[in-house]
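User: I'm putting together notes for a lab meeting next week and I want to include a structural view of one of the chains we've been expressing. I don't have a solved structure, so I'd like a prediction I can at least talk through. The sequence is below, exactly as it appears in our construct file.
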Amino acid sequence: MEDRFSIVSVEEDLIRANEKVANEVSRLLAEKGVKSFDIVGAIGAGKTSLLERIVERLKGKYRIAVITGDVTTRIDADRISRHGVETLQINTGRECALTAFFLKDALRKIDLNRVDILFVENVGNLICPADYMLGCDKRLVVVSLTEGPYVVKKHPLLFKISDIAVINKIDLKNIVEANPEEMLRDALEINPNLKVVLTSAKTGEGLDDLISAMGL
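Assistant: Thanks for the context. Below is the predicted structure for the 216-residue chain, given as structure tokens.
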């Protein structure tokens, strides 16, 4: 029993320490005038594809930097960098989410004086990122129709603490069983203050609505 309490105590200490660093990151980005977005979602939800669309649309208007998080590889970073924006890869090893510690270290490698918008693509996961705020201005949670009709209901915490929810892959609504409108209602039942956007990274549908929801 003591071991279990010790583990819980250590986890709580880590979360508190992360929160302190997240506040430092938030202050730094605010001082530099950088708008920042933490993008979370499961592997295959379409986070990178949406980011590619967003970056391509906005790179002529803003100076953009992107940080991508993955357990290993720089596949996503390579995809983003092809759009001509500064991109940095964080490999977390066995960690299932980015933390503010990871982000603070990564920001040392970026000249924030030359950045207007920072996008942080978190490790593909709908559970772990809920414990670790990064210090970004807004958090987006991305889910897709291919994850099933109950993916929103099964992960309420991320929807409670996010600012924007994206229901992606709506181009498949006539193929899969999930109904995007029902998923939208599920999200708003969890968090009535959410901005919920229906998108297709494949076709570009809903992209204007998403950019507007992000205030860009």
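A couple of points you could mention at the meeting. The helical segments are 2-31, 47-58, 75-81, 100-107, 156-160, 180-190, 207-213. The two ends are 50 Å apart (CA to CA).

User: Perfect, that's what I needed.
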